[in-house]
């Protein structure tokens, strides 16, 4: 997945209308080198196409991609190599690494969550808690880690939350207003209690978000719904208790941390003589 406009903005931000004064001073402009993108820690890779496109944007073309997105790699793995003008490689270095590290971090964290609940019927799902302008890429990285995506934007489906319910005057009123104006849209609605869930069942939503319920309450919710629609647990979920939630039978765990709190995957660039 490539966002070339984002790459152009990132490189322009780095130069800010000027030039790389360090490289211009230390590199004559005639040198050619080989540079390897190397994983400094184990993790799951995402953003390879973005990194390659950064290199292409500065005029480099001799690029060898050695690892595909979604691959789980060990520390010291060479992900990609590039041969060409030294100044161009140094100009692209930080922007390419920023994309690889950020997206790889999301993919790596997602894979950790996915492996934590492996063997259950539950899926790890992301949220809209993404970096402005990078949602498509970050949600792509979630998929590379084995997770699944919630709606991409506000028009892709309805999610009726507590503030919508309060504004509309109740769960049923909120649902009916959304359904009236959007007869074919998928509708998910948030509930805080089993009583609210019981009220929602007859409305036949596509999914219900169980907000800040314990695993015990989630298990009761699963029994109450009996497969009539999907259930998603959200709030208070950690890697420590994720399996307990997944084993209740809910369909999804909503994890905002996948995109808003993922540590960067440590990746470096090593130059070597051609």
UniProtKB/TrEMBL annotation:
Residues 106-270 form the Quinolinate phosphoribosyl transferase C-terminal domain. Pathway: Cofactor biosynthesis; NAD(+) biosynthesis; nicotinate D-ribonucleotide from quinolinate: step 1/1. Keywords: Glycosyltransferase, Pyridine nucleotide biosynthesis, Transferase. SUPFAM superfamilies: Nicotinate/Quinolinate PRTase C-terminal domain-like, Nicotinate/Quinolinate PRTase N-terminal domain-like. Belongs to the NadC/ModD family. Involved in the catabolism of quinolinic acid (QA). This is nicotinate-nucleotide diphosphorylase (carboxylating). It comes from Candidatus Planktophila versatilis.
């Amino acid at each position: 997945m490539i966002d070339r406009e984002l790459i152009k903005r990132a490189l322009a931000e780095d130069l800010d209308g000027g030039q790389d004064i360090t490289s211009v001073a230390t590199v004559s402009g005639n040198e050619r080198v080989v540079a390897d993108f190397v994983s400094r820690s184990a993790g799951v890779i995402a953003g390879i196409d973005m990194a390659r496109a950064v290199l292409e944007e500065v005029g480099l073309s001799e690029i060898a991609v050695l690892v595909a997105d979604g691959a789980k790699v060990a520390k010291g793995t060479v992900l990609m190599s590039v041969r060409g003008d030294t100044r161009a490689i140094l100009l692209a270095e930080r922007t390419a690494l920023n994309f690889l590290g950020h997206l790889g971090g999301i993919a790596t964290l997602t894979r950790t969550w996915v492996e934590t609940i492996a063997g259950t019927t539950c899926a790890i799902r992301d949220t809209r808690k993404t970096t402005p302008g990078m949602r498509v890429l970050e949600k792509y990285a979630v998929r590379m880690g084995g997770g699944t995506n919630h709606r991409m934007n506000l028009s892709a489906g309805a999610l009726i939350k507590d503030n919508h319910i309060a504004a509309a005057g109740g769960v049923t009123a909120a649902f009916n207003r959304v359904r009236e104006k959007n007869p074919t849209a998928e509708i998910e609605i948030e509930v805080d209690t089993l009583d609210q869930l019981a009220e929602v069942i007859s409305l036949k939503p596509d999914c219900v978000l169980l907000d800040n319920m314990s695993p015990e309450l989630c298990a009761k919710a699963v029994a109450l719904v009996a497969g009539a629609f999907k259930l998603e647990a959200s709030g208070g979920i950690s890697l420590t208790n994720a399996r307990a939630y997944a084993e209740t039978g809910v369909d999804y765990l909503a994890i905002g941390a996948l995109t808003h709190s993922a540590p960067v995957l440590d990746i470096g660039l090593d130059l070597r003589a051609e």
